[in-house]
Amino acid sequence: MAGASRGRSLEETPTWAVAVVCFVLVLISVIIEYMIHMIGKWLRKKHKRALYEALEKIKSELMLLGFISLLLTVGQGLISDICISKEIAATWHPCNKQQEKSINESGHEDNTDTEHRRRLLAISNTGRVFRRSLAGASEDKCAAQDKVPFVSSDGIHQLHIFIFVLAVFHVLYCVLTLALGRAKMRSWKRWEKETRTIEYQFSHDPERFRFTRETSFGRRHLSFWTKNPVLMWIVCFFRQFVRSVPKVDYLTLRHGFITAHLAPNSDTKFDFQKYINRSLEEDFNVVVGISPPIWFLAVLFLLFNTHGWYSYLWLPFIPLIVILLVGTKLQVIITKMGLRIHERGEVVKGVPVVQPGDDLFWFNRPRLILYLINFVLFQNAFQLAFFAWTWYEFGLKSCFHEHVEDVVIRISMGVLIQILCSYVTLPLYALVTQMGTNMKPTIFNERVATALKNWHNTAKKTHQTQQGLGESILQQAKLPVSPDLPGSPPQKLPERNRQPQYFS
């Protein structure tokens, strides 16, 4: 690869070869676009507005990644023409000096590992200039100044491949996240059906008095460890791994939500499980998004993958620590709800009623937890995409994976975080965040919400039309505007025309 000759340009290439390549690329793009269109059409037919908006956001994220790739293509020559000194370019390498020297000396070998290593040096080597068909002029220009390119043409091409791999992993992780979350919440449908049975109504008799600690919710959350905040966090930390959402917690939170936000006697009529599903679909728009702060953290991740920082020992654990902290906080919120029930009295009538409130969440913002989940999911997808890209480009035994522990940690953490976040924490978030102060608009189904919006818009337009018609009639008749008409300014009567008002 180091001594590759200049390749043929398009003027030396058969037109049929160019046409075949363009036809295949266009065909693949049309097929992908048609598939996305059919998925969106199916979501609109099923009245899945939130999922359709999430699909549109995924399309916009893919367009952003494609735009980044286009900028790299257009600016490839400009970036390669930037020359920097060898002293500056010799810092922050993924390989150490001994590894780079051994790779340079093993250039005569022609095996797979050596080939991958030589490709790695295209972006990390500073003492040796590699001439490529697309960057020969820029590298010769820098070599004449005893400098090296800022980023070589090969390095930019490898970034193109990384962007493609990142796009694939981002889409797969979005689909897998929603699928695992819905699979976990599907088991709640059975509990929801039990609320309509006679056995449930008998066991939850509203006229029965019981001690708070004797209820199922009290036995689970009221114990000696709840009096100590440290023990509470330790117990709640382990609870997210075993029955993170038990039946008693689901039914108790359901009853508390209905009592706080809905009319009386709605316990057996309201489908709480469907409401949570609609709320999760609405929040999924945030999960699939890539905000500027997350992009900034992803760039920091690329920066820290340098030799001597031992990034494989701490970078993969950051998303794991964040998601474990979020899961523990959600369990603590449920326990604190139980403590508040006990503080109101040792005897409860009927089912224990939890009181929703934003003060239970960090900074009184339940939605902050969703942003943390979004950060964890994208960073996990980014790290696995980076691992797959370095494996493909430079081999499994490259400088990026110098130790076997690196490979084991990255793969195991990627799988563990995805399962833990999608199957455990995300459903728990969907349930606990319903205990906020405000009720979400997804309390109405898609058709009812659309009908209410249309009614509101129609009423608003009718009011504006009537108001404008009344003012125009008065102006044409040249009459003073009466204060009784809507939208008219208040009139001040003369002093002699004022009548005294008497109050009984």
UniProtKB/TrEMBL annotation:
Q: Which InterPro entries match?
A: Mlo
> Which biological process terms from the Gene Ontology are attached to this UniProt entry?
defense response
Q: Where in the cell is it found?
A: Membrane
Where does the record locate the signal sequence feature? none
Keywords tagged on the record:
Calmodulin-binding, Membrane, Pathogenesis-related protein, Plant defense, Transmembrane, Transmembrane helix
Please list every transmembrane segment annotated in the UniProt record, as residue ranges.
16-40, 61-79, 159-180, 284-304, 310-334, 368-391, 411-432
Gene Ontology MF, one: calmodulin binding
Membrane topology of the entry: Multi-pass membrane protein
| First-listed, main subcellular location of the protein, grouped into a coarse class | membrane
Q: Which GO terms describe its cellular component?
A: membrane
Region feature (Disordered): 479-504
Q: What is known of its domains?
A: The C-terminus contains a calmodulin-binding domain, which binds calmodulin in a calcium-dependent fashion.
Write out the function statement from the record.
May be involved in modulation of pathogen defense and leaf cell death.
By sequence similarity, the record places it as follows: Belongs to the MLO family.
State the protein's name: MLO-like protein
Annotated organism of origin: Hibiscus syriacus
Taxonomic classification, please?
Answer: Eukaryota, Viridiplantae, Streptophyta, Embryophyta, Tracheophyta
